[in-house]
């Protein structure tokens, strides 16, 4: 076994040159080989390392942290070139042989010192070089010429005797060469234990005159030794590793760092600090009760077992029956618990169960008491420590650290998945790429590298992830914690984009920053582990020191402020219970929605904080505070907004505040107003009002508030101190939601109320048309609380205009337009009859039958004769008046019949009379109003002609029996009205035409004039509060029409076809917009409303054809169209005539 060696004087022929040498640009990972040896029924472990020097063949060497020399077996070969793994280097000095003894000095090596110019380290599994160091300044090595021992310690046949005067040998002892060792070397076999070609010393110490361990000569910062990895451990090393050169990320992996007992020198070549061989102090406890006190300890990877040179512990263990003998040393019985803890505040304990060396495995065999391998009160902890921990030798800082995590400095470029069978993993490299980092159930990882991966971080249930030192996962798209995230050891806190999951986040004194929040977290955030937390078995109990999971909390915990949470931007939702004592900060671009509980923390809000849960600490805000939850620690709004209710809802709601509510002078209490409720703050304490603003806000998507409404917006059990400075709202003002309402506040000792009153905005301010203005002015004259005006006060300008039009009764005025237009049908029938009596081609002679006495047309001749004629004609038309800025459009249809009798009179005059019946239906689009009229007409007419000049004239009077129906509906009001009343339409007309015969075509240019007077009597609607009383009204209009009538005759078989066409232009004079003068029966002043106007200019087209089937039978059909701006009318007439 290689333990500490006996200090002896020796010739040291190495030049101690502190020269520059090439070292790795980053931490280099060198695989170590785990080798199990079996000897005489014993089993024990070794660490090997594959090394080549001077670019020669690499071989396996024992890796020994208990040694300070690189010993290379070369033997006493007669070859001048030396072995393949160490060929002779011309010009390199080699010292005289000396003894390098181990243990009690009875065995060791005969060796000489020299130097090598470079060192290569290899991966034994792949055979590839993993690291090369240029040591041209001279790396000291020792060339082993023979394995030597005293006769009683030789393991084989003795060879030649070693001269007694050889330096380094114990005086009075005789030493012989071990022939078995040399024979193995001669046969090409590893001479040491069948595996090794020497020893790579890796101790962090240097004895006077020694070369010094290899790692210490190659690095100024330090190195890490570990063999605690699992077969699936991530990284480039495998289960065991030597990591050269320390980085901040590597140092941060070590939770326990024990200062050396002192720096006593420096390493050759590198100049790095070197310490004592037993340079750290550990406390040892057996079965949780028997202890040693601090013992200088050597962590020796070259020793298979554990040796504690403590006679005191031996005595205690023997007395307790824990040892098998009471000699100068004793092996502790297997199955006992040994706990070792570094002598430094907050050190992690490491516990093992003692093994049975006699049963085969020596790795955990514990020997206590005086022995030849250690001094009393010194400890030698062998390979077992490295099998359970990674060990850091920090030469730069003169400390030794240890951690149960398997540490890797490897980089991972495409994300990484950590599994439970990897064991606890310490990631000091960089995880990069677009994929994420996933910890599967039961896995454990500790990150100290500045990671750049952009995928998600997933911490599964029952898994644990720590981020410490300079470690960062800031670029990860989201961190989903369903297990545990621990940032207690981070340097200056952690920034992540977003947090999600249902696990726990342990902060310690660090603050977690959410830079681009978008998640929902239902777990907990705390400075300590939550009571009852179950962690993976691989996570030691004191992992979060000083935030201990199991130790009692210090007495000052309740008064100290630890880490907190900051939402820098984005929206984060917390639905669980969190109990950290640091502040919760919400930046201007941040939003925090709480549906769970925030215990102890003080919230500082500059963004948006929606509390739908419970806060127990005070909340200070300069941003926006909303929610329906409880502020159990009080609420202070200095210059921001507070509004009860959810931010995504316009519905008024309530929030609860305990202790004190302070609303500063620059604060705004935003009150959401509905029809029956408004926002309310219920305060179990005192309200302190410092002159802030009440902003009453109503929403178009919720029912409107009502005039005279009284809302309680704040109650305080301990009273209200102070008042608000002003009240503003979106109700009043021309562009407001409810411009006819305004708000104010009233105070009582323990409450504040919001009052809804009539604003100074007149209804007429909303009007845009004449009708709207008339109705609005009438409403302004009513009491604001009247049944009609009260609901209008709850409307905005746009809806108010709709209400004005609905109330206007416009249908009554537009009905008069329809009746004036319908008068054309009677006039046209009379003129058509008079033209037919004069035998003018193209005239319709009747739709039923015509008896002609005294004037018979035969063939193409018209024969006049004295007598009477009876006739009848039916008509029908459909018209549309387009809307104007003032009135809605109207659709109208009319139909009926006219019959009459006429006769020839003196001096060529033809006179007659007519009677008719018609029915008109009309409706106005957008006004929910319609009507009808039954029309009875009486009239007379006369015509004559002087050769080609014809004169036709007449007069009629129509009794109109009107009926209207309309619905008045707008937000907050609904009513239906109907009315029945009478009117009359009188007209007089004349037509003058001159006929031209143009071959087979007859043309008659004409002009006619008609005067129509339409009069309606007063009416009273039946319905509710919106019913109207209308005054009698009459309107006179004059029409002048100019155009040409064309007709022709053609023979088709035995029948004669007579096509005809009329085109003309019509212009109207007088009052073209009928009006009505009305008043609300509820008591308004009179107002005038205009209907849809008559068209002023229109084109007239009439096209028809008659067929003389026989001399007595005629049939005909015609179409009449009238077209003007926003006006069109189409009519059809059909005729059948029989001449007796």
Q: How would you portray this structure in words?
A:
Residues 863-1140 form the Autotransporter domain. InterPro entries: Autotransporte_beta, Autotransporte_beta_dom_sf, OM_autotransptr_brl_dom. Residues 1-19 form the signal peptide. The protein is mostly beta strands. It is built from 9 helices and 82 strands. The protein has a 24-stranded mixed β-sheet that branches. A hairpin with a 4-residue loop joins strand 67 and strand 68 (929-946). The longest helix is centred in the last third of the chain and has 28 residues, at 810-837. The radius of gyration is 56 Å and the shape is elongated. Residues 1-25, 541-559 and 845-866 have low confidence and may be disordered.
Measured by DSSP, the beta-strand proportion falls in: over 45%
Range of helix content: under 10%
Q: What integer is the average pLDDT?
A: 89
Number of domains: 5
* Largest β sheet strand count, sense and barrel closure: 24 strands, mixed
CATH architecture of the largest domain: Beta Barrel
Contiguous low-pLDDT stretches (5 residues minimum) are: 1-25, 541-559, 845-866
CATH homologous superfamily assignment of the largest domain:
Autotransporter beta-domain
Organism: Acetobacter persici
Protein name: Autotransporter domain-containing protein
Pfam family, one: Autotransporter
Keywords: Signal
